[in-house]
Amino acid sequence: MAQRKVVSSDEFTIGGTIKSELMITVAALESLPSLPIQDQILRNHKGEIKDTLKNVKGVPLNVILGKIEFVYKKPRELDELYFVMVGSEDHKVVFSYNEIFNSDLGNRCYFITEINGKKLTQLPERILFISTGDENVGHRYIQGLKKILIKRVD
């Protein structure tokens, strides 16, 4: 089976239920401190190994989300928010506000800045997002991230 070509992204936007939209560029990500991430085995929906990411570094998701202000009247309304990460090919993954801010999973989500010695600008997909806290890492691995939409449950 042929591998599909992922369209690269050099920036992504964060919008939705926030006070003002934010744009994050490759340069902005590279200027932030990156943390080492344990090697990641990517699996498909059947649990089969697709790839292994080695010598990985990344910027924690919470560092970026800490820059935004959510729109809400009562703190309880934050529990109704969810985040849709959208890749360049419209691949979407979803996280709840509580997954990101009130569980350990939120500490294990990253924007990848380096893989195997290759910096972000050398990676063909450019902006990559990964959740390393999932049972099968790979389901919430986004290549060519183009936007994060913050929505409220109806």
In words, what does this structure look like?
The chain has 154 residues and is mainly beta. It has a single domain (11-152), classed as Oxidoreductase, molybdopterin-binding domain (Sulfite Oxidase, Chain A, domain 2, Alpha-Beta Complex), CATH 3.90.420.10. It has helices at 26-31, 61-65, 97-101; strands at residues 11-16, 22-25, 35-37, 40-43, 49-53, 56-60, 81-87, 92-96, 109-115, 118-119, 128-131, 142-143, 145-152. It is globular.
Number of helices: 3
Helix content: 10-25%
Give the N-terminus to C-terminus distance in angstroms.
40 Å
Question: Class by helix and strand content?
Answer: mainly beta
What's the order of the H and E elements?
EEHEEEEHEEHEEEEE
What oligomerization state is this entry in?
single chain
* Integer average pLDDT: 90
Top-tier CATH class? Alpha Beta
Question: Which CATH architecture would you pick?
Answer: Alpha-Beta Complex
- Name the CATH homologous superfamily: Oxidoreductase, molybdopterin-binding domain
Beta-strand fraction estimate: 35-45%
Q: Classify the fold: give the CATH topology.
A: Sulfite Oxidase, Chain A, domain 2
